[in-house]
Amino acid sequence: MTDPIADMLTVIRNGILVRREKVDTPHSKLKVSILEILRRSNFIDNYEVSVDGNKKRLQIGLLYDSDKPAIEGLRRVSKPGLRVYMNNKELSKFFGSRGISVISTPEGVMTSQQAWKKGIGGELLCHVW
Question: Rounded to 5 degrees, what angle do the CA atoms 35, 51, 40 make?
Answer without folding.
Answer: 15
